Amino acid sequence: MKQWVLSLRAFQFEVASRAAVAAALPLTVLVLTGQLDWAAYAAFGAMTALFGRNEPYRVRLRTVTVAGALMLAIITFALILALVEAPLIVLTAGLVVVIVAGIVVAAMAGLFPATPIFFVFGYAVIAQLPTPGDEFWPRLTVAVASAAFAWLLTMSGWLLRRVAGRRGPDLYKNLVHGALTRPAAIRDRRVWVSVAQNVVGALAAGSLALAAGIGHPYWAVVSVVAVLPPPGAKHSVSRAFHRMIGTTLGVGLTALVLLPGPPVAVLILVIALGQFGAEILIGRHYGAALLFVTPLALTVVHLTSPVPVPALLVDRVLETVLGSVIALAIVLLVRARGPLKNRH
């Protein structure tokens, strides 16, 4: 029994479970109320639970609040652009703003994961969803409610630990020291170099996907952001390949789920398991985590705006390859130039 409990601790069962519940419950409510077309707003609000992990609660209060507030600000921004049917040039400028905000805020607030992948993904999906004027506030309310629920779940361990006391400490992953705030990160050259790499890579990937006429061009953008490392991290070719392979295999797993045409309940379960698996692995092996992030992402898109599954999967594979190749080229260029020293 003790070995089983220790195994749960080792794999961060508590962290992953709350992320899964944060996604599953709001989506279930939408199904029961007949508003499944609002699934994207609930799903991205729920991604607030992907931050904070096993940080001490004083630190977690800051990181989860910052992450949730940023996610809601980006959702609101994307909703406004969708509402006014913003042209491509405006959507592109908005993407740049989101990339800058995602990287800089993550660096300053000590967020983990430190990449802007979830913020970029949320913006890219929501900004292109048709949004009737009378549904702006209901959709935003869904996102806010989902993010608030995720925030409460993420902080709920504080109460559970006080109730459990010494009676069940092994049921919880030991809290570790979280990242400190770094206001000076806004002057960190490595942060702005990372911003430049992500912006250049995202714009190149999106432009090539549009020129090639591939559907869902934002997948290429998301692939670039998924492969590039966070500021200050090593630009490793092997890690880039791990992330490419993880994303591609994730598409294969998604095909096994979506091609049979499962009921909505199964899709919600896939999203919950995606968040669970991502939390289990993201701190250990980002490439392996993408095995779960990719089905999570594709299933959210499929719930929100259903298209023929084979076309969705083919687009995802093509754009994963395109975005990953561009990101790998950036990694190789950075490695060829040698290590980047920080300058304030």
Give a short account of the largest sheet: none
What's the domain count? Answer: 1
Secondary structural class: mainly alpha
Helix percent reads over 70%
What is the number of helices?
A: 14
Tertiary shape: globular
The oligomeric state of the chains shown is single chain
Q: Which consecutive residue ranges, at least 5 long each, have pLDDT under 50? A: 1-8, 168-172
C-alpha-based Rg, rounded: 19 Å
Mean pLDDT: 85
* Straight-line distance between termini: 52 Å
Q: Beta fraction of the residues?
A: under 5%
Q: What's the SSE pattern?
A: HHHHHHHHHHHHHH
Question: How would you summarize what this structure contains?
Answer:
With 344 residues, the protein is mostly helical. It has one domain.
Keywords:
single chain; 344 residues; mainly alpha
In words, what does this structure look like?
The structure is a single chain. This protein is mainly alpha-helical. The protein has one domain. Helices cover 72% and strands 0% of the residues. It is built from 14 helices and no strands. The protein has helices at 2-10, 13-32, 39-46, 57-83, 88-109, 117-127, 136-155, 157-164, 189-212, 218-227, 237-258, 264-281, 286-304, 309-337. The chain is globular, with a radius of gyration of 19 Å. The relative contact order is 0.14. Residues 1-8 and 168-172 have low confidence and may be disordered. It comes from Cryobacterium suzukii. This is FUSC family protein. Residues 205-330 form the Integral membrane bound transporter domain. Pfam families: FUSC_2. It is found in: Membrane.
